[in-house]
Amino acid sequence: MNKLIVVTGGTKGIGRAIIEKFAREGFDVVTCARKEVDLRQLVAHVENTYDVRCHAHVADMSEPEQVKLFCEKVLLLRQPINVLVNNAGFFIPGEIATEPAGTLEKMIEGNLYSAYYTTRGLVHVMKDLRQGHIFNICSIASIQAYANGGSYAISKFALLGFSKCLREELKQHQVKVTAVLPGATRTASWDGTTLPDERFMPSEDIAETIYSTYSLSDRTVIEEILIRPQLGDI
């Protein structure tokens, strides 16, 4: 039986790169996204390129009920979960004083609650087997406030706090927790920018870093990964 990785928000950007890397290493994949057409294309690509299974489900991970249904589908596979990557999330720019009402709620739901409820839905499998690794895709915005970051930065600060709490709770169960804090990465969220690609990290570098972290011995965990463009933040 192949090992299994679960990646939320896996059709684009960092999530897609993580799936590609782990599938290349022989992992079966479970993922989700909002658009069915993107999921169908991902499944076809992964299963035609790598000798693994790819299971994909339509889900808006900012909705707790849809998170619950996604977790139930993962559990129906009755396959040990080796890696969980809480990657689903999005960015709404703005300032706290002037951003539209409801922005904070949307950011918390999409960037924090998605990881919280997915973890709650799946972590008991890891605890029971005393193995597994959870990666939470945080951000430079988790440790550094910046102009126009607004509620996005608040949600990412909270996600890092969630990661720290989870690490303390799970270490006695031999389940690893790593917070990943990427700087500017060339993903669809930067479409339309006039900045050259050289100012961004490729998503593949984040995926390689995560796989290397996962590959360490059972006696070692990297708790936080801070990874920036060579020329600095944008």
UniProtKB/TrEMBL annotation:
It comes from the Bacteria. Keywords: Oxidoreductase. Pfam families: adh_short. PROSITE patterns: ADH_SHORT. SUPFAM superfamilies: NAD(P)-binding Rossmann-fold domains. CDD domains: SDR_c. InterPro entries: NAD(P)-bd_dom_sf (IPR036291), Sc_DH/Rdtase_CS (IPR020904), SDR_fam (IPR002347). GO terms for molecular function: oxidoreductase activity. Belongs to the short-chain dehydrogenases/reductases (SDR) family. PANTHER family: ALCOHOL DEHYDROGENASE. This is Short-chain dehydrogenase. It comes from Pseudochryseolinea flava. The lineage of its organism: Bacteria, Pseudomonadati, Bacteroidota, Cytophagia, Cytophagales.
